[in-house]
Design a protein that fits this description.
Blueprint (H helix, E strand, L loop, with lengths): L14 H5 L5 E5 L5 E5 L9 H4 L15 E7 L2 H5 L6 H11 L3 E7 L5 E6 L2 H4 L15 H10 L4 E6 H11 L6 E6 L7 H15 L3 E8 L8 E6 L4 E5 L4 H7 L22 E5 L3 H4 L10 E5 L2 H10 L3 E6 L1 H7 L13 H7 L5 H9 L3 H17 L1
Parallel strand pairs: 4-6, 6-7, 7-11
Antiparallel strand pairs: 1-2, 3-12, 3-13, 4-5, 8-9, 9-10, 11-12
Length: 383
Amino acid sequence: MINILKKQECSGCYACTNICPKECIRMKSDNEGFWYPDIDKDTCINCELCEKVCPVINNPNKAENKINAYACKNKDNKSRNASSSGGVFSLLCDYVISKNGVVFGVAFDENFNVKHMHAETLEECEKFKGSKYIQSKIGSTYKQAKEFLDNKRIVLFSGTQCQIKGLNLYLRKSYDNLISIDIVCHGVPSPKVFRMYKEILVEKYKSDIKEVRFRDKVNGWKEFSCIAEFKNGKMYSKSAKEDIYMKGFLKDLYLRPSCYECKAKNFLSASDISLADYWGVENIHPEFDDDKGTSLVLVNSRKGEVMFRKISSSMDIIKTNLDYAISCNPCIVGPVKYNPKREQFFSEYNKKNIEKTIQKYTKVTPIQKIKGKIFGILRYINK
């Protein structure tokens, strides 16, 4: 029986609920809005399957393979502009759907809750485009994916590093018809904080939300904007540096406890391909950067290499230096640092206006401003 003693010991991947033969594990939200397994001990048969598939305490088997890194851009500018980075995920979807396959990804539901869902048409895959900076509910999608795999359908399953690690442990064997894609993750913010943020926007704009875009490129890829469109025709638009929700996220203020000690990074998820933003691409491949989005594609397995070749004709590609790419996006191999203000934030966030609470705990001190200016000068000199 799985026993969570510390909240850092659970990534909320749902592998335990999917594997339980008696269906006696439910996921329940805590006061921070994150879900954890709750076991009906009267029904549990102590089969220990839940422990065997937990990505915090286990690692899936994987063949050793050289990891190759590529800077990539979808040649279709319309598709790339609608994506968060270089539009590579859309090409993967196109290929899998063309082979009568199934794509699992993350989408907003009708209430803008973030969930894992599957798609069997290109039209259905549209809902997966764009970043969602909230932890998604896996639900029963591991089970659904296994059913499609056992029925010989090609399955592309995308998720954060811990979710893909959970999937590979849940399956307990290798499937030739599975393509697992992990999205390099900064950490997952509290769904409850996001819900409170949405409520403030709805109140301010006197209308329900029609669409949310966290990574709109209207001001460029590097200075991406957060946009909410409302049913009354109004629009909210701020840069990531100005938007209050993104401020807290980028300061690591309300991430899931396990994110600060993530056990799925450094290629431990056993994914076939890892996708990330290629921050810093302008310094190593200046001719390649147009500020419209560049994907960093890490090919981690032979199966991933085959898939990459299948879609390569639809991309502009440069093979790049893996160590440099990691230096610009260290979340590939390690977790973010714990924000010491996190506990104070969660002790107050229910009592006050969430906007003011985030502002309070993300306020930049004079010393931090000075450090920031020095860092900016040094970075300019290095360039």
